[in-house]
Structure formats: C-alpha cells, structure tokens
Design a protein that fits this description.
By secondary structure, the protein is of the alpha/beta class. Helices cover 24% and strands 26% of the residues. It starts with 11 loop residues before the first helix and ends with a strand. Bound molecules: zinc ion. Zinc ion is lined by residues 39-40, 86, 88-89, 187, 212-213.
Length: 284
C-alpha cells in the first residue's frame, strides 16, 4: 500500500519564524522530533490549549529552551511521557518541571539504578503531577488527537527488566480528523516488535519514529512491513559512539516506501498533521 500525502519541504528558517513564541495555525497538530544529539525528545503541540505533550527528554539539560522554541510562552504541559529511563531519553526531563507546570506523567515505573532517574522521580513527586503507569490499551484524549499505549502489554511498575529497551512505552498517535497516525517506539527492539505483530496490534502508521536510533536490534522487516510508513524519522547524533543508525537498518528502511528523515542531517523535523493531510518541515 502506498499512501499519497501532500508533501512539502520548507527551509528551516520557516520553522524558526513560526516558532517565535506563538502557536502555529490553530488547526495543526505539530509533532517536532527535536535535534538533541544522540537521544530522543519529541513535542506534540495540538491545536487546543490542553494538547501539549513531551515524549522523552534527550541526553542534555537544555531541553526546556528547545521545547520553548516549539511551544512559545505556554507554561503548561499536559503530559510528559518517559519511554524508559536510559539517560539519552531522560536527562533533559527533570529540568522541565522547573519551567513548566506538568499535569500528568506517563511512564512504566521500572526499577533502574541511576542518579538521573532518582532526580527525575524526585522532580515528578515534587511537581504534584498525576503519575500513570503505562500499559497496553490505555487511550489518552487530547481533543483533535489521541495517544494509545501499545506496549508494554503488562504493568511493569517496580519490575527489574534485563533489557530496559524492551520496557519502552510504545505509543500510537492518531489524528482523529483524518485518521493519520504516528508511531513512537522508544528504543523497543525486535522482541517487542514481534510481540506487537503476533498480538495483532494495529501498528500501521503514516509516520514511524524509528526505534533505538536506527540500531540493528530494531526495525525488523516484518515490523516495517506491518507499519508501512510514508515517513520514517531517526533521532540520532552526528558521529555518535554507537555508530547509529546501523547500515543494515538503513537498508531495511530503504526497502520501504518511506521518506527517511534524520535529526543529525535535517535538524529538528516537524510533522504537521492538518485537516488536509500531512506535511513535513526539516532543514533538508
Ligand atoms: Zn536511546
């Protein structure tokens, strides 16, 4: 199946001029995959006042200024999602509680010994945000869009997990107006991908946030075939020590119909879900 979407590439300056302190067009859901180097940090900015979500916080502590570039002067975040507590997804998040009033935190509550995770958990409890443990089947309503938890299949609160990547919260965003979808995979590896395919989960999506920075342990052929994305975006640092993305993963992605976006090459990549369809803004 080849999905035909209106496709548009604008200069990065267009992103900046739009982002100076004010919301974008009121009918757009804008998903920004932030350029945070080697790690993941994404912002969903819906048309409503109550539709702002951050997924993961990247490896650095300057996240709040990058989020402010997208959200402008707004000081409320409706939800922060931590997919899993590895530092490249976590480190920027603690700082967010100083700048923003955070209403809800969605995470797994897995056990993991790290200073950064302790700091994050302390910031969460001090903030007074509602904390929910992610488990398959939960659906969060943000007006024009919804977020559905696809993984983990069972509650993981307090559990010690051998491979933390496979404890990632996997989320499907759906634009309710058009049915267009974006899949957020965290760092989930092939084991989770197979489980989702075997469970018959509805994982077809227009946009795929490629799992685990393009590691060869994720993006298995059967999974990519089931997702069948029109766009695939890799959040990855230039010349990172993990040598992500892996050449084999890029080859597997190349066999799909997806346009490939990379934060190391394209900077912050913004997916604009509009009532008319989907357009993409990157520095390319
Ligand atoms: Zn990672």
């Amino acid at each position: 199946l080849v999905m035909i979407v209106p496709f548009l590439v604008l200069a990065a300056t267009a992103v900046r001029s739009r982002a100076v302190g004010e919301d974008g067009p009121r009918d757009e859901i804008i998903v920004s995959v932030l350029d945070v180097g080697q790690g993941d940090a994404m912002v969903i900015d819906g048309p409503g006042e109550e539709a702002e979500v951050v997924i993961d916080g990247g490896p650095g502590e300057d996240l709040s200024s990058k989020v402010a570039n997208v959200l402008g002067r707004d000081r409320t975040l409706n939800m922060i999602i931590l997919t899993h507590p590895h530092a490249d997804h976590l480190a920027g998040l603690a700082d967010m509680f100083a700048r923003y009033s955070v209403e809800q935190v969605l995470t797994t509550g897995v056990r993991y010994a790290s200073k950064g995770y302790d700091v994050f958990l302390d910031a969460v409890s001090a903030s007074g945000a509602t904390v929910t443990m992610a488990v398959r089947g939960q659906v969060y309503d943000f007006g024009e869009y919804s977020l559905e938890v696809l993984s983990p299949p069972h509650a993981m609160d307090g559990a010690s997990i051998a491979n933390l990547n496979n404890a990632s919260v996997v989320i499907m965003m759906t634009d309710r107006r058009t049915g267009k979808r974006m899949l957020f995979t965290g760092d989930a590896e092939a084991e989770v991908e197979s489980e989702l395919v075997a469970a018959g989960a509805s994982i077809a999506a227009d946009v795929l946030k490629v799992s685990h920075h393009g590691s060869q342990d994720a993006s298995s052929p059967a999974f990519l075939q089931a997702v069948d994305p029109s766009h695939a975006v890799l959040s990855v640092g230039a010349k990172n020590r993990f040598r992500h993305p892996h050449l084999r993963t890029l080859k597997r992605l190349g066999r799909t119909d997806a346009t490939i976006w990379r934060t190391d090459r394209d900077g912050t990549v913004a997916f604009h879900f509009t009532p008319q369809g989907l357009s993409v803004v990157g520095a390319q």
